[in-house]
């Protein structure tokens, strides 16, 4: 395991955008590189897989284990697709549930998603890798607009923590170690509404770095609900964002302090003195305790559902249109490319293109809502065997300020159903070349 990342076969560049950790651009030149043989259960051996080994805390120490890159030019996803283990470069994540009576493992699905872990309507939008400021994008490619955040009290009442007449654009960053990063005003409002104040200002220097710490007896017991301008609502349970303080030892073991709790919501001031200056608002990994995320790098889209915290699993293959057109026989889902979500057209049952007005596309009341098992705008079709996807489930051990036209709504699969799909050949798609915030 000698030499650098490039010599090992890794990318010579790391694309950085506003919001990316500052030290990411140093990774390629400073890290060690090597190769190893990698095999997941049920997947063919991938030989001479390039591995980068950082030699400094490139993300303020938030990555405690080796990072698996699943970006647009992900070495791992590209290798699985080339080997025929997955038919499209799709990954899906549920973070799981800890700190509950019966913990639920998180899951990462490659090549599709887990139907048993989603419920209700879903929301799909194009991936947009760009600077957070002055564009509609994010360094992770996944940007949503929050129209409200409400605190849910045990007596059934709720109260907003949003400043009047505001919307909050957020980047979804599954790598981020908290639930929410937002301007300080939002966190102050949360404390005022809940009465959650620490007797002394103390911030975690452990697993949830920078989280506000407070005594257990002062803990707030309500949930919190994120309202997306698309209409999707994600309610995060109290025990997934107000949690026992977690530290760690030099050997990697974790220590829980049950006398002190942490609020997984962090505020930041956009000024020169703040180490978070210029950072976008972020929805981190604990958002995925209540939301289920699917990213389709080939179609150029991401999809959100409300998560169903289930130990059951039913894996569904997902294809973009190009790969779906080459398949035939086994069930799966064909998801249109990102362009389908911005154009004013839809695919009819006969496969022809029918014009739709902007109002019909942007108004969810104009069509019936899809079930949780159907991806927005997707076609449930027949897909075959050599698209043979090993939908390996990897269990995690531990777990634009809104304009009307920027919101995307889609048709039910019945409206977009295909009668036939042609046979698949062995051709491969050319991967894109811009990495996301997760490492390639």
Describe this structure in words.
This protein is mainly beta. Among the domains are: 22-82, no CATH class; 121-289, Cathepsin D, subunit A, domain 1 (Beta Barrel), CATH 2.40.70. Helices cover 7% and strands 32% of the residues. The strands form six sheets. Strands 7, 8, 9, 10, 13, 14, 17 and 18 form an eight-stranded mixed sheet that branches. A hairpin with a 4-residue loop joins strand 19 and strand 20. The longest helix has 11 residues, at 184-194. The chain is globular, with a radius of gyration of 22 Å.
Could you write a compact summary of the structure shown?
The protein has 440 residues and is mainly beta.
Please tag this protein with its features:
single chain; mainly beta; 440 residues; 7% helix; Cathepsin D, subunit A, domain 1; disordered C terminus; 5 helices; 6-stranded antiparallel β-sheet; 32% strand
Poorly predicted ranges (pLDDT <50, ≥5 residues)? 343-374, 379-440
Question: In what range is the share of β-strand residues?
Answer: 25-35%
Number of strands: 26
Q: Indicate the CATH architecture of one domain.
A: Beta Barrel
Major sheet: size, sense and barrel closure?
Answer: 8 strands, mixed
What would you report as the Rg, rounded to the nearest angstrom? 22 Å
Assign a percent range to the helix content: under 10%
Could you tell me the mean pLDDT?
Answer: 73
Number of helical stretches of at least 4 residues: 5
Overall shape: globular
CATH topology annotation of one domain: Cathepsin D, subunit A, domain 1
Full CATH superfamily name of one domain: Acid Proteases
SSE-based structural type: mainly beta
Distance between the termini: 19 Å
CATH class categorisation of one domain: Mainly Beta
């Amino acid at each position: 395991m000698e030499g650098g990342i490039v010599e090992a076969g890794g990318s010579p560049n790391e694309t950085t955008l506003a919001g990316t950790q500052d030290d990411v651009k140093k990774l390629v030149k400073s890290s060690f590189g090597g190769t190893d043989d990698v095999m997941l259960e049920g997947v063919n051996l991938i030989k001479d897989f390039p591995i980068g080994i950082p030699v400094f805390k490139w993300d303020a120490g938030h990555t405690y284990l080796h990072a698996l890159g699943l970006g647009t030019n992900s070495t791992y996803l590209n290798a699985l697709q080339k080997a025929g283990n997955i038919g499209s470069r799709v990954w899906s994540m549920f973070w799981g549930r800890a700190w509950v009576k019966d913990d639920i493992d998180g899951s990462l699905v490659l090549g599709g998603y887990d139907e048993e872990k989603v419920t209700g309507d879903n929301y799909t939008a194009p991936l947009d890798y760009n600077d957070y400021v002055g564009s509609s994008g994010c360094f992770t490619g996944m940007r949503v607009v929050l129209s409200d955040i409400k605190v849910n009290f045990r007596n059934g009442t709720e109260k907003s923590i949003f400043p009047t007449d505001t919307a909050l654009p957020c980047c979804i960053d599954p790598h981020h170690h908290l639930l929410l990063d937002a301007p300080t005003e939002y966190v102050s409002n949360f404390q005022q509404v809940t009465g959650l104040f620490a007797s002394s200002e103390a911030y975690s220097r452990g697993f949830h770095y920078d989280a506000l710490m407070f005594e257990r007896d002062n803990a707030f017991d309500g949930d919190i609900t994120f309202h997306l301008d698309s209409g999707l609502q994600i309610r995060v349970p109290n025990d997934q964002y107000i949690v026992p303080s977690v530290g760690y030892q030099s050997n990697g073991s974790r220590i829980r302090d049950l006398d002190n709790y942490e609020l997984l919501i962090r505020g930041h001031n956009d000024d020169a003195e703040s180490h978070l200056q210029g950072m976008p608002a972020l929805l981190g990994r604990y958002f995925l305790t209540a939301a289920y995320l699917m990213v389709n790098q080939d179609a150029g889209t991401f999809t959100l559902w409300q998560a169903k915290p289930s130990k059951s699993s039913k894996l569904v293959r997902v294809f973009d249109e190009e790969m779906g057109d080459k398949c035939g026989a086994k069930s799966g889902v064909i998801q249109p490319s990102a362009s389908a979500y911005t154009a004013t057209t839809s695919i009819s049952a006969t496969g022809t293109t029918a014009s739709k007005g902007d109002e019909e596309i942007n108004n969810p009341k104009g069509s019936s809502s899809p079930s949780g098992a159907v991806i927005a705008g997707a076609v449930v079709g027949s897909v075959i065997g050599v698209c043979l996807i090993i939908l390996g489930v990897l269990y995690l051990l531990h777990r634009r300020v809104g304009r009307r036209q920027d919101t995307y709504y889609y048709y039910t699969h019945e409206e977009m159903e295909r009668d036939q799909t042609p046979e698949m050949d062995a051709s491969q798609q050319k991967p894109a070349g811009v990495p996301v915030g997760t490492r390639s």
